[in-house]
Amino acid sequence: MKYSPEHVGIIMDGNGRWATKRGLPRMMGHNAGVKRLIKILPYIYERGVKCVSLYAFSTENKFRPAEEVDNLMKLLSKNLQKLSDEIADKDIKFSVMGDTDFLPSDVRETIKALTEQTKHKQGGYLNVALNYGAQDEILRAVNLAVKKRKELNKQEFSELLYTAGLPALDLIIRTGGEKRLSNFMLYQAAYAELYFTDILWPDFTEKEVDKALDFYEKRNRRFGRVD
Ligand code: FPP
Fold first, then answer.
1. Domains of the chain: which residue ranges?
2. Which end of the chain is more exposed for a tag (fewer CB within 10 A), N or C?
């Protein structure tokens, strides 16, 4: 019997390089990346994963050239609803982590509508990081904790993170060849298994999902203890 991670984080890297390799503008890589995401997300849930957290736009991404940021926002606005429609039959609850004030109003509206429409869903979770940085998230939680004027335990502190109510992170997949977390879910990654692949995100097929989940299945998770 295959056992699947409950919560998978995905750093979808390599869209730009995928396009450049083909002599295309970088934006074409992001377009191909979204198409791939829409294609494989249902499959990830079908493989038994309950919660998926996606690194879609980091706090640092907004310092890219204005045209790329603008186009990425348009891409989000066009595809967030589409992504949610693809998994509608799976009873998935939608959430966003990050400082959404920066996002254009149509993206904020879509987020609000999807969050509202799916708030009672119980089949699983889709958590999208938008204008997200883990250091900002931890700092925000610390500031909320300070306001409470009492010492918190780990459980109480984790309730102040964007991921309150979500299961612990079991596996992080990063495509595109870099071996780092780039400010993604640093607190939640404490005991996550890390899977790095050279495959560029637009080439991340169902077969690549299988490879990542097979890797996870072979890990011996000790959580700092001995067997
Ligand atoms: C990193 O590739 C990718 C991004 C900054 C954007 C990822 C976003 C998506 C795939 C869209 C998500 C859409 C929805 C609806 C959630 P890169 O540009 O850093 O690639 P490079 O390292 O090759 O330059």
1. 7-217
2. N
